[in-house]
Design brief:
Layout (H helix, E strand, L loop, with lengths): L6 E5 L10 E4 L18 H15 L27 H4 L8 H9 L3 E4 L14 E4 L10 H8 L7 H9 L1 H11 L5 H17 L10 H7 L5 H13 L26
Helix pairs in contact: 4-5, 7-9
Length: 260
Amino acid sequence: MTASPPLHVGWLLDVLPKSMVPVTLNANGLKSHTVVIAQSGSGKSFMLGRLLEEIAGKTRARIVILDPNSDFVKFSEVDPLAWQKEFTKRWLGQSDHLEAFQKRWAELGFQVLTNRPHESLSLRHLRASVGRISVSWSPLPVFDQGAHLGCSPHSNPEELLALASMRGAEAEHLRIMGSPLNLQGFHDVLGTFFNTAKYGTFHSSNDWPMAAMNRMRADIQPEVALRLLVLCQHSKFGFAESAGSTINEGKCSPYPKMQN
């Protein structure tokens, strides 16, 4: 396997600018923990962005960026003006001309997970996709699921027991559908169960999710399912903010919002 080229992150500042002495990092040296420490406003985010560009463009590493301040939400986009602005172009390496960078960048794929409207990002990269933030729900232990929804053994014992009773439905979904339930899917199963119990429309069937509904009916009371539905909707993951009300008339949409 060909070794990754040196990662260019800037220039030495204690020599004459015309000498153009580059500062590079060995990609293999980044396999261990690395921290960037400096005063506020000193350029940490800019330097980190430059390092991430080098890692993404010159190695085969996959990068996960946790970005609460949205500093890198448009990491996929190439700004041609960076090669014209005096402040930014002086940080670029001699081999990093615009055409070479664009060619290298076009081969990469990007995925942005956010609850912001997709249209507001205006991403132009052909291999950039945008998805909503969601919770990998089924793999969580019952008490972690309860903690996420705000349930405790002291104040919400029935809800925790209901979460435990849902484990069979989660396993059945994985077996039949080939994927674990996320929080939205968990909510939809609860909504189906609540409406089925409310209207007394249980029937014998081996089809998903009715088989799971029939097994849950002995362990979960409809009012407990309703309380869990409300807790799910108060969660900040997995639901559209502008959702309409659909827990009525025996149906449940992907993005339901409870009525009073």
